[in-house]
Amino acid sequence: MTTSDTATDAQLSALETRFEDTIARSERIEPRDWMPEGYRKTLVRQIAQHAHSEIIGMQPEGNWITRAPSLRRKAILLAKVQDEAGHGLYLYSAAETLGVSRGELTEMLIEGRQKYSSIFNYPTLSYADVGTIGWLVDGAAICNQVPLCRTSYGPYGRAMIRVCKEESFHQRQGYELLMTMMQGTDEQRAMVQESVDRFWWPALMMFGPPDEDSPNTAQSMAWGIKRNTNDDLRQRFVDMSVPQAEALGVTFPDPDLKWNAERGHHDFGEPDWEEFMQVVKGNGPCNAQRIAHRRAAHEDGAWVREAALAFADRQREAARA
Ligand code: BYC
């Protein structure tokens, strides 16, 4: 039942109470349950942004499939990029349970009316970037997404469980690739360090703006959509990554990064939030290229969608006859 149905004030207040109680008990809201319009809109925004990120995220890594250094690396990269497509599809399906279609969401993406993660607007300049994306970008994604397995909206949380399992494999393949390169030549080690230097700050920006500048966090946490704030997850990611960098033999490009025994966490420098805002507004190094590519793929696929619809119509008619 939605608010547009002719519910009396008393019925509406009973529905609201039931919704609030479900959230308070940390139980799940399911597609047919009543939900406030703001909750639905927030979920559509976040799930669509997440789905778009998975699909646009195929581009920077897909760039290297034809130039992988060995058959083994090519097979791993192909599997990973295919997994990202799958994640996009689970997420679009989760969004569809909220009354929007994948077609509408794709239109909104290519018209610039919906966002995708800032990280995918940076270029991949060497094969080491495939490893760094796996280690740091998928690592940041896991940090952000494991708590989302407990998000209050059922279809989103269930999609996240499978996504996180696959992201763990992605993270490990990235780390293993970098470890292999670090055991190679000086030139390979330099490639890894150069790649980590470029991706460290953009990876920290994936968690979103600082909490005091995050307009959505408080309400999303009250509704149990988000389980942690942007800054909490960013800190968790830094603490997790520092020992991994040490084991790998690389450094992060942050002179302020050091262990703070009192806090029991690492202190670290401030990302360039002006750069983040520019990238989110569409002015990053690859924004125009990413959207142009996505638009072309969508337009090139029009005949497939038309053929599938015509086939479905014909089958329906045959069944009727
Ligand atoms: N990039 O109030 P805030 C992956 C926007 S991983 C662009 O804190 P919220 C993958 C935000 O949308 C990446 N925009 O927002 C990995 C909002 O704008 P609007 C995808 C960003 O939603 C490897 C405004 O800034 N992961 O897919 O409470 C390979 C204010 O922010 C960013 C997810 O999407 C950003 N980094 O918190 C392949 C995870 N950060 O919409 C693929 C799910 C913020 O109000 N999403 N904005 O105009 C989330 O957890 C949350 O949406 C965020 C932001 C933590 C990202």
From TrEMBL:
Report what the protein is called. 1,2-phenylacetyl-CoA epoxidase subunit A
Pfam families, per this entry? PaaA_PaaC (PF05138)
The record's InterPro entries line, in alphabetical order, gives: Aromatic_CoA_ox/epox, Ferritin-like, Ferritin-like_SF, PaaA, PaaA_PaaC
**Underlying gene:** paaA
